[in-house]
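User: Can you predict the 3D structure for this chain?
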Amino acid sequence: MTETIETGRAEDRPDAATGGYRWRWAALLVILAGEVMDMLDVLITNIAAPTIRAELGGSASTMQWLAAGYTLAMAVGLITGGRLGDLYGRRRMFLIGAGGFTVASLLCGIAVSPGTLIGARLLQGAFGALMLPQGIGMIKQMFTPKQMAAAFGLFGPIMGLSSVGGPVLAGWLVDADLFGTGWRMIFLINLPVGLAAVLAGLRYLPAGRSKQATRLDLTGAALASTGAGLLVFPLVQGRELDWPAWTFLMMAASVAVFAVFAWYEVRKQRAGGDPLIVPSLFRKRGFTGGLAVGLVFFSGVAGFGLVFSLYLQMGLGYSPLKAGLSQIPWSVGIMVGFGAAQAVQRLGRTVIHIGTAAMAAGVAGMVATLHLAGLDVTPWQFTPALIVTGLGMGMMMAPFFDTVLGGVEPEETGSAGGTLTAVQQLGSALGAAVLGTVFFGILGGHVTGAVDHDAPGLRAQLTAASVPAARQDPIVAGLRACGDDRATAKDPAAVPASCARLQRDVAAAVATVPESAPAVQRAVGAAAGHSAKTGFDGAMKVTLWVEVGLLGLTFVMVFLLPMHARPEEDAPEPETGTGAVPATA
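Assistant: Here is the predicted structure, written as structure tokens:
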């Protein structure tokens, strides 16, 4: 055996009838509970951040760090977290991580200042990085190769449903104000889930660790954490700081640090040491190809989810709860896609190709929906395209983890699981940064373009209201400047100086024709609202096409993956009754 068992409990031994761990399905539910807590905590603060800031105070960067602090701590700790499981036992590290995550959630829920809340979020990310990588290793330990596809396949729909349910849950909890807790309940809800995961984990999780792991590679951990931090920090902070030169220098430095890290790991293994990431992993086609595919795909998924949610709330004026409910067809599509992937899993890599193509078609369908429905698009009109998008996402993700990790040896699973999850987190940060930057970077130009397009109509209305031409020019110019400043503002609650000037220009125009004041105000208000909606509509269409491009790149990169998760699946099945067995590698 390649795994050692830490206790002598009979229930920790493989089931003689199936070859798998006796409590494997119950243990899988415990692992998925940890995944759900992580996914929800990635998303919920995006919805609740304005309410949190209104109560606790702080600058605009406070809202940014509520998400960025968690992501940064998670990304820099994931690889080390997986290795700790190899060294000290995956069940032990999962329980410590789940318990610490629960306590950190309590600290978030009782925070009294922005600093204490951000610090608690950092703790959540750090303990999450200790908890999450253990799940993949335990799944490979508990399930037989034939069962593993179904086990890993559950990750796709669970993560997809959590990504859609997070905003819905956050919006509902904030609006419901249960027991007078307001936004605090989005963190306090983790307490029963986390406690249940710890108690169930004590009973059902297997106690195994890798017998090859001997010592923690502290130098490798420091290099990996530094490289990830140098990449994630400028990605999540760059836009707010207007992308100063040092953000690009940090990203360039991260490449250099990762290169040193790779050199050091190979050197350490050749010297007989125990590297943080086993270099032999990168000789496996499924794993190396999976890292590349995962980086691009999860970038697209995270970026799409962020921008679409922002568009619904900021562009269409939906409440947080309505925006979350509008994405339910996406989750329905994910569930259908998961079932479809299970039905055709014999097609192997082709299922991932079909899913990626379907998701791209769904996103392109959203562009068509915006063209056909116009500025007054409804959630029902988005439904067909969202279902197709979710269908493709489910079909892609259901076999993905099994395909990537199918060829990984048991002694490599801790390292492989931590690395894959870290790349997923880095991809999510990259997608949010890139697509968010594209969206907000072009938004101002689309808004001002809409003002210019609508200017003749506005002038005609102002003329009909007897506003002199000399008073019309400042209003049109002010609309243009105010629209651009609002579209690019870092603090949406602040009134830009250009908007304050526009208000004064409108007041001056009204003073010349008091009897036409209501008509002037209606005309200016309608023009401002129409240009803002048109700007968001145009920016969303461009961003969706960028998303289609990312999915197209994912489709091409899927060819890097093996046709099937395990080599024996590529071999023809023996004829019935011959007694032949498939050859194994």
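The longest strand covers residues 3-5. Residues 443-536 form one domain.
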